[in-house]
Amino acid sequence: MSETKIKDACVRGETIPSSQFKVSDKSELTIPLRNLVGLILFIGVAITGYFSLTERITFLEHNAELRDVHVKSNSEFRIKWPRGELGALPDDAAQNMRLDLLEKQIEKIYKEHEDHMRQLNGSK
């Protein structure tokens, strides 16, 4: 078949015998320049989109990992801080010292009160 017969057969949707196609190092393929430019632009946009999506997914995965680390540390802090396993603030230490002093003073006052009550009851 000649080249025009092949084109006509393609337009009509007919099958072309494979013996008519011969591919070699001298084979040529013609494509309109606007189609070639469009194809190159499409490939460029597709590659840019792929790398943008990959970068965004990587960024989101990294943020999720950081968030997990923060949540785990917060959970550990939330559990261990009230137990005193993570230490205490200097203000807490000063407050605890004051509370200890007040407890000792109250015990002393309570003992003095009991002694005073015993003396009153014993003298009657």
Which bin fits the share of residues in helices? over 70%
Structural class: mainly alpha
Number of domains: 2
How many helices does DSSP assign? 3
**Oligomeric state of the chains?**
single chain
User: The biggest beta sheet, please?
Assistant: none
Report the sheet-strand fraction: under 5%
Low-confidence stretches: none
Q: Please give the radius of gyration in angstroms.
A: 45 Å
Could you report the average pLDDT, rounded to the nearest whole number?
Answer: 86
Q: Kindly, what is the distance between the CA atoms of the first and last residues, rounded to a whole number of angstroms?
A: 141 Å
Shape: rod-shaped
Please write the string of helix (H) and strand (E) elements: HHH
Number of strands: 0
Set out the fold topology.
Blueprint: H1 3-12, H2 33-83, H3 90-123
Can you give a write-up of this model?
The chain is mainly α and 124 residues long. It folds into 2 domains: 57 residues; 37 residues. Helices cover 77% and strands 0% of the residues. It contains 3 helices and no strands. The longest helix has 51 residues. The termini are far apart.
Structure in a nutshell:
With 124 residues, this protein is mainly α. It has helices at residues 3-12, 33-83, 90-123. The chain is rod-shaped and about 140 Å long.
List keywords for this structure.
3 helices; rod-shaped; 124 residues; 2 domains; mainly alpha
